[in-house]
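Hi L.,

As promised, Phosphoserine phosphatase:
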Amino acid sequence: MVSHSELRELIRSADAVCFDVDSTVIREEGIDELAKFCGVEAAVSEMTRKAMGGALPFKDALTERLALIQPSREQVQRLLAEHPPHLTPGIRELVSRLQERRVQVFLISGGFRSIVEHVAAKLNIPTANVFANRLKFYFNGEYAGFDEMQPTAESGGKGKVIRFLKEKFHFKKIIMIGDGATDMEACPPADAFIGFGGNVIRQQVKSNAKWYITDFVELLGGLEE
């Protein structure tokens, strides 16, 4: 078991921290909430479980789930207005503390940019630091697919984003924090991965992650001056 002192040293040494969003920064899985809102919750939740467990290629799972949901622009806007995502306890304080230390904070999500930007605004994270999938709509607002060119639309996409960030900003130590298999796979190129089980525990991640926490307070302690 890794000691808390080692974990504190790790978080203090980072010059960039990348967070997954669904079930990490927020308590929900955005795509499941959208499915519930559109009346196809059960089928989509099962696909999400398979995708997060690594049993189904991410782009295949995303394509199939969105084909079931068929979300319109209006439905996405109504979801955010009527059922906004709930921030995980401690995340607001953690992001704020990192920013005070001049650590760059990024959100890297296989979820949807319209939802993730809403979350970023709550955390004072600039939209330029958001990497997520873009839903496409026809002129009448009906669902028209998603932007398959986004790196986050496929397996290994989060790692591609981190590699891009390293090349662009020359970060010496990037930490990836998330609950799922796609987050763990981003290390490397991330220099360290911290598994997060505060909302849902993915056994594959808990068993294989060197660092694993269930409460962001465990990281906040390491950033106290």
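The mean pLDDT is 85.

Thanks again for sending the construct details.

K.
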